[in-house]
Design brief:
The protein has one domain: Ribonuclease Z/Hydroxyacylglutathione hydrolase-like (Metallo-beta-lactamase, Chain A), CATH 3.60.15.10. The protein is 19% helix and 29% strand. The protein contains six helices and 14 strands. The protein is globular and about 45 Å long. The mean pLDDT is 97.
C-alpha cells in the first residue's frame, strides 16, 4: 500500500503507514477557543480555521505521534477526547506530562524504536536560533521507515540547520512533512522554516516528495498557503512540493 497522509489542519495529520493510522500533533479545538501566542505581532485568538473533519474520525487512529507539547500541536481538546489506551510516541522529556493527563501507553523514543513493522528514529532540533531557541526548547522530528511502503520524515518545528540537512542527505526519505509558515516572534525571530528553507530542501533532496503544512491557522504564522504556492511557482518547484488544503488526502 502507498503512504497516505490526510492533512487535517496546521501541524495535525493522519498518516497511514503499514496499515496503521498515526495521528500527528493533534490540535482539535474549535475556532477561537485558544488564546493568542504571546509576544507576537497580533493577538487574534486561535485557531483561525475550523476542523475540516468530524471529531469521530479520531476515534479510529491506532497511535499518536507527538513531536512536542506546544498548544498548537497538543491542545486540551485533543487531550480530552483521544483514546487514552493507544500508544503515544514522544520525546523523552514529554513522557511524564503526557502520562499525567491519563494516557496509559506513553512510549518515549530516545533514539530508535520499532512498532508494528515501522522503524522510528527521533531527530532532535532547535525550534529557533539563539535565546529564543532556549526559551522554546528542543523539538523532535521523527523518521519512520518500513520494509515495503517506504519512509517519511516528519520534521516538525525544527528550523533549518546543518543537522537537518545532514538528516536528509543520510536518510533520503521518500516523503517529508515540513512545518512552514515563517512563524515569527515580536522581536523578529523566525521559529519555523521559511519559504527559502523549503526550496533548499527541495533542491537538496529532489527524490523526496515534500508536503508543506503549518499554514493559515495560528496567529504568529506570517506566510499563507497562497504566498507559499506563489513562491514555489516562481522557483519552478510546484511539482516538488505539495501544499495541501485542510482535509485533503494525498497518497504516494
Amino acid at each position: 500500500m502507498p503512504i497516505s497522509i490526510q492533512h487535517i489542519r496546521h501541524a495535525t495529520s493522519i498518516l497511514t503507514l503499514n496499515g496503521k493510522r498515526i495521528l500527528i500533533d493533534p490540535m482539535l479545538s474549535g475556532v477561537g477557543k485558544i488564546a493568542p501566542v504571546p509576544f507576537t505581532r497580533n493577538y487574534k485568538r486561535n485557531p483561525s480555521t475550523p476542523l475540516p473533519v468530524s471529531l469521530h474520525i479520531f476515534e479510529k487512529v491506532d497511535a499518536i505521534l507527538l513531536t512536542h507539547r506546544h498548544f498548537d500541536h497538543w491542545d486540551k481538546k485533543a487531550i480530552s477526547i483521544l483514546n487514552k489506551s493507544i500508544p503515544v510516541f514522544c520525546q523523552p522529556k514529554d513522557r511524564a506530562s503526557v502520562q499525567s493527563v491519563g494516557f496509559k501507553r506513553v512510549i518515549p523514543v530516545n533514539d530508535c524504536y520499532e512498532w508494528e513493522g515501522i522503524q522510528m528514529k527521533r531527530i532532535e532540533g532547535p525550534h529557533a536560533p539563539g535565546l529564543t531557541g532556549k526559551l522554546l526548547g528542543l523539538v523532535s522530528g521523527f523518521f519512520l521507515n518500513t520494509m515495503t511502503e517506504g519512509s517519511i520524515y516528519i520534521v516538525s518545528d525544527c528550523i533549518y540547520t546543518p543537522a537537518i540537512e545532514e538528516a536528509f542527505r543520510e536518510l533520503m526519505p521518500d516523503v517529508a512533512i515540513l512545518n512552514a509558515s515563517e512563524a515569527e516572534m515580536i522581536w523578529g525571530t523566525v521559529i519555523t522554516m521559511t519559504s527559502e528553507d523549503i526550496a533548499r530542501i527541495a533542491r537538496l533532496s529532489p527524490r523526496t516528495k515534500l508536503l508543506a503544512v503549518h499554514l493559515d491557522t495560528i496567529n504568529h504564522c506570517k506566510m499563507s498557503r497562497n504566498q507559499l504556492t506563489k513562491f514555489l511557482k516562481e522557483q519552478h518547484l510546484e511539482d516538488s512540493v505539495w501544499v495541501p488544503e485542510d482535509g485533503e488526502v494525498i497518497s504516494f
